Fold this sequence. Notes:
It is built from eight helices and nine strands. It starts with a helix and ends in a 12-residue tail after the last helix. By secondary structure, it is of the alpha/beta class. A hairpin with a 2-residue loop joins strand 1 and strand 2 (about 45-50). It has one domain: Rossmann fold, CATH 3.40.50.1820.
Amino acid sequence: MGELIGWLGLVLLAGWYLYRWLLVRKVPLRQQVSMAADVYRVGEAWIIRRQVQNPECTVVVMHGFLENPLYFTRYYQDPGIELIMIGSAGYHLPLCSPTFQSAPWAQASSERSGTIAGDARVLNLALEHLASTDTIRVHGHSRGAAVTLEAARQRPELFTPVEVILEAPVLPQGRLYRPAPRIAHWLLPLLHLLWQRKPGITLSNPAWGPLHDPHKRELIMALPFNPQHSGVLMTNLGDLSAWMRSTDMDIYRHVRRGAVLVPGKDRVLASKAMLDSARQAENLQIIEVPDGSHFVLLDNPESIPPLIRNP
């Protein structure tokens, strides 16, 4: 009996060490592009400001869970746009040979890395110190929409002149389309590793919507490689669920104007819960996209309200 208990203890110890390795294992970077941009590191997060002369307007973008800032670059490619991209804490920087800048304000957040509140503080640093025009849009996709709302709650004075675009958003009292069982959460590091080994294995999943666009396929194939390690995904998911449950509708009063885009065929978040929550936002227009997937910007770019520019 004693020998059996000893072997059992060794198995459990080996399993624990394997799980810890899966959590901290470094994930290789897959997607990188060349871009003339200045990069500010803020703790484990990134602020990327595309270089521009005499910008007509400013757009600050915040990507969603598993994504990277390249989700937005094709839509906002106009050289007259001052594009400022936030890279979530714990995620790779998707740029080749970046130009790093230092600034006294680029200090790490006191919030836990990988949380909505932590990324919101980084977004506010970009708004406060880098946005150089009076015409400002903040565009958040999925989890990035929750980061946008949280940033407005933290620093409402920064959002007085801001138009917000909340695309297929994580919202207060929202829900996942199909909540995963608890065991799936704990198996996530192993599933993440297997997904990296065969990134194309999930392409048939209806959650992605249509995949005839090569640009979209490239972004989807890069998803498992964007986080630097699996631990940040565990933090992201746990915090996201807690934020949806605990955040009340009062948060909407901090945004003055903009739109919420609700896709009718979202297979990541529950569209009905999204719509019910959005209807509590008195200052925001609701744009329903009946045939839209979770990736409205890629599949239905015409649904995005036109960008206002300085004359």
